[in-house]
Amino acid sequence: MSSDAYRVVVQKYGGSSVADPEKLKAVARRIIETKEKGYRVAVVVSAMGDTTNRLLGLAKEVVKTPTARELDMLLSVGERISMTLLSMALNEMGHPAKSFTGSQSGIITDTTHSNARIIEVRPQRIREALDAGLIAIVAGFQGVSLEREVTTLGRGGSDTSAVALAAALDAEFLEICSDVDGVLSADPRIVDDAEKIEQLAYEEMQEMAEAGAKVLNSAAVAYAKKAGIAIHSVSTFGGGTGTAVGDFTDDSRTGLVRGVVYERDIVFVASKERFPMDEITAALDYLDGEHVAYKQFDLGIQTGDGYDFTFILPLENLHGYEKIRDELSRRYPDKITFFEGRGTVSLIGEGIINDGANLKRAVKTLGDAGIDIHDIHTSRFRISVVIERDHLNEALGLLHDAFLAQG
Ligand code: ADP
Ligand code: ASP
Ligand code: MG
Predict the structure, then answer these.
(1) With contact defined as beta carbons under 8 Å apart, do 178 and 231 qualify?
(2) Is position 113 within any domain?
(3) Does 145 lie in the same domain as 32?
C-alpha cells in the first residue's frame, strides 16, 4: 500500500481517447483533475487512433513479411508520438510533465517480437519524475528485451504496460480509460442493448479478453491477477462508474452467462487426414520455433492409424501468417486445411458447463437460425463455437438475446 505521502494513480488512455489534438488536450485536463486531488500521476498512453494499423499497413506495402525486429521498431513509434504530444500539452497547461519510452521506463521483456512478455519493471526514472512533482507519461505497448532490442507487447498491449507500471509503483488505483463505460455484456458496437457489468472476477475477464473482448487485454488481466491489482475499466469522457475487475467471486452467479464475445481475426486449421504423432509434434515444434501462439488444440484419438486435429491461429499478433500457412502446406501437402473465413463466438461465465443446459441452449439458438457450427470448445468458464465469419454478428445478437436480454 502507498503511504499518504506518496499516493500514486496510474491512468492508461487508449487510442480513441487520444485520437486527435483536441482529445489529447481533453485527456490532459482529465489528468490534471486527478493530480489536483493530491495524487502523483503516471500515465500510460496508446498510439493515436488507428496509427498502429496504419504503420502495419505501411510495412506490408513495402514487404510481404516484415522482419520482426524492424516491425517492432516501427510499431513502437505510434506510442512515442502520443506520449510527447500529451507531455507538451500538460507542460503548456502549467503542469510539468516528462515523457518516457518503454525502455526508459524500465519495462524489461523477453525477446519475443510482436508479442513480448514483461519480465520485470525497473521504474527508477518514473519514480524520480514523480518525486520531482512531474506527471510521468509512458509510451504503452513497448519495452526493451534483455538483448536490448525494442519489443512490443501484442495488440492492446498498452493495458499490460499500465498494469505492470501500477504494480511496480505500488499504485493506489489503476484506471484503464477507453471509449466505453467499462466491460459490457457484449460489444456495444454490435449489440445495442448490451449492459454494463459492475464487477468481474479476474478469471472471467481473462476468458472474455482471450475470447476477443477488446476492452481489456488478456495478458494485462493475467498480470493484474498475479500482482493482486484491481483494474478499473472506465470511460475517458463519458462519466459513468465503469467496471471493476478484481478478486470478486460470487457463488450465486455460478453457471450464469455474463458476457458474449466474438473473435473475427482467426484461422481455423484442421487436418484432412490422420497424422502420425511424430508429425504432429514436429508441426507444433515448428509453430513454437516461429513463436506462433495457437489455441484450442484438439486431438481426435485414433487407434492404429493416427490422429485428427484442429486448432485456432489468432491472427492479431501473427504478422507472417501466409509464411506459416505456406510452410505447413509444403511440409504436409494436401493434408491440412486452413479455413480463413471463420470466427468464434463465446459465452463466458464461471461454471458455464456445470450442467448441459447452457450448451444445449446455445446449440439450439444457432441451429434454429440455420447457423452451422463447425467446432465447439468448452472450459469451466467458456463455451466457444466456430462458425462462418459472415454469421458472427447475427450469432452474437441471438446468443445475447437468448442468455442476457433483460426483461
Ligand atoms: P482502447 O483504444 O481504449 O484501448 P479498444 O478498442 O482496445 O480501446 O477497446 C475498446 C473497444 O472494445 C470498445 O470500443 C468496444 O467496441 C470493444 N469491445 C468488445 N467487446 C466489448 C465488451 N464486452 N465490453 C466493452 N467493449 C467491448
Ligand atoms: N497501439 C497498440 C494497438 O493498437 C497498443 C494499444 O492500443 O494498446 O494495439
Ligand atoms: Mg485496447
Answers:
(1) no
(2) yes
(3) yes
Q: pLDDT (tens digit, 9 = 90+) per residue, 116-140? A: 999 999 999 999 999 999 999 999 9
Considering only CA atoms, which of 327, 336, 200 is closest in space to residue 273?
A: 336
Overall domain count for the chain? 2
The confidence score (pLDDT) of residue 252 equals 85
Q: Are residues 174 and 263 in the same domain?
A: no
- CATH no. for residue 149? 3.40.1160.10
Establish whether residue 157 lines the binding site of ligand 1, counting it when its CB lies within 6 angstroms of any ligand atom. no
Q: Which residues contact 308 (CB under 8 A, 6 or more apart)?
A: 270, 271, 274, 275, 299, 300, 302
Q: Whose CA is nearest to atom 9 of ligand 2?
A: 155
For ligand 1, whether the C-beta of 404 sits within 6 Å is no
Q: Which residues line ligand 2 (CB under 6 A)?
A: 14-15, 46-47, 52, 78, 140-141, 155-159
The domain of 323 spans: 259-404
Q: Is 189 in the pocket of ligand 1 (CB under 6 A)?
A: yes
Which of 155, 179, 203 terminates a domain? The answer is 179
Residue type, 142: Q
* Closest protein CA for atom 6 of ligand 2: 156
pLDDT at 239: 86
Nearest CA to ligand 2 atom 4: 52
- Ligand that lies nearest to the alpha carbon of residue 46, given by its number in the listed order: 2
- Ligand 1 centroid–CA 38 distance in Å is 30
Express as a percent the part of the chain with pLDDT over 90. Answer: 92
Domain end call among 151, 179, 207: 179
- Residues 11 and 134 reside in one and the same domain: yes
Q: Are residues 174 and 267 in the same domain?
A: no
* CATH number for 265: 3.30.2130.10
Helix and strand numbers, DSSP H then E, in the chain: 11, 20
Domain-located, residue 295: yes
User: Does 242 fall in a domain?
Assistant: no
Task: Say what the pLDDT of residue 303 is.
Answer: 74
Ligand whose nearest atom lies closest to the CA of 162: 2
**Which ligand sits nearest to residue 213's alpha carbon?**
1
β-partners of residue 68 are none
User: Which grid cell sits at 196?
Assistant: 454494463
Q: Which ligand 2 atom is the nearest neighbour of the CA of 217?
A: 8
Dihedral sign, Cα of residue 2, residue 100, residue 58, residue 294: negative
H helices within 118-217, ranges in order? 124-131, 158-168, 202-210
Which of 48, 75, 79, 158 best tests ligand 2's pocket when mutated (most atoms within 8 Å of CB)? 158
